[in-house]
Design a protein that fits this description.
This protein is mainly beta and 301 residues long. The protein is built from one helix and 24 strands.
């Protein structure tokens, strides 16, 4: 039994893009420019799109970065930060791309998912080659230095803050655990980490977001679904997605009432792709709740 089998279905997602991503991830609503951003990690691409008729997404631009693109965040100015393999890359509003110093070490290790915290500091984790308990979750401070929040993860993945910024939830994928800790939204000081929920397999928790009612929405890689989880840790709903590698989820649109789900083709055999030909597409639906205010990156200045 997959986690959430007994939970009520919360709607049917529709296909939103005509192009499939190999490893689509990290959907993000840019509230200032009114556009959706997401990444194709291995391709090193950031996509920019707008909503069109019926919840479809029209791709306006593909922005190529000279490395992997684990996650993207945007500043009020339009400056972007992208997590490459070992360092962060910065794209100015005029399109110029520069690289920061190496922050990740170890053979086969790279940056993975991340988001800005309530003060605009980027919190980003790592993914290694072997799933050992040595992956890290870092917070990149305003001065460019890195603070280690965790150093014992199997695969650092999705994260999100409650609406008041005082609790941080993070996913450790291969252990199937979702952690929670207190978080000071001003200083970034954290309380002790504790296990919020361990999901049953098959499938692994991946990217996530939090709605305005402080419920988590967690994409299940290998499970073909998104789960809604209450603040008490109960699975209270599910969205079934016609793509087994459901990778991440976000609320988007001017009213933050449209859910965007990314999926991937990575690690699927030709037979599995034939059985799930929509893998790699983006999907949308209206789940009946709204998201929280998107957090902007502070920018290099």
């Amino acid at each position: 039994m997959t986690a959430g089998d007994d939970a009520p279905a919360l709607g049917t997602p529709r296909v939103a893009t005509g192009v499939g991503m190999f490893l689509g991830e990290g959907p993000l609503w840019d509230p200032i420019r009114g556009v959706l951003l997401w990444v194709d990690i291995e391709d090193g691409s950031v996509y920019r799109g707008v909503f069109a008729f019926g919840g479809s997404i029209e791709i306006q631009e593909r922005i190529a970065f000279p490395d992997t693109a684990g996650t993207v965040a945007v500043a009020a100015s339009g400056e972007m930060v992208v997590a490459g393999t070992r360092s962060l890359f910065f794209r100015a509003p005029d399109g110029a791309i520069t690289a920061g110093p190496d922050l990740v070490s170890g053979e086969g290790r790279r940056f993975n998912d991340g988001k800005p915290d309530p003060q605009g500091r980027l919190v980003v984790g790592t993914k290694g080659p072997d799933g050992s308990d040595a992956e890290t979750l870092l917070r990149v401070e305003h001065d460019g230095s890195a603070t280690v929040l965790d150093d014992d993860l199997t695969l650092a993945n999705g994260l999100g803050w409650t609406a008041d910024g005082r609790r941080l939830y993070t996913v450790d994928t291969l252990s199937r655990r979702i952690h929670v800790r207190d978080y000071d939204p001003d200083t970034g000081e954290t309380g002790p980490r504790r296990v919020f929920l361990t999901l049953d397999g098959p499938g692994y928790p991946d990217g996530m977001t939090i709605d305005a009612e402080d419920h988590l929405w967690v994409a299940v890689w290998g499970g073909g679904r998104v789960l809604r989880i209450s603040p008490a840790g109960e699975i209270v709903g599910r969205i079934d997605v016609p793509a087994p590698h459901t990778s991440s989820v976000a609320f988007a649109g001017p009213e933050l009432d449209t859910m965007v789900i990314t999926t991937a083709q990575e690690n699927l055999t030709p037979e599995e792709l034939a059985a799930a030909p929509l893998s790699g597409r983006l999907f949308t639906l209206r789940p009946g709740v709204r998201g929280t205010r998107p957090l902007l990156w502070a920018g290099r200045s």
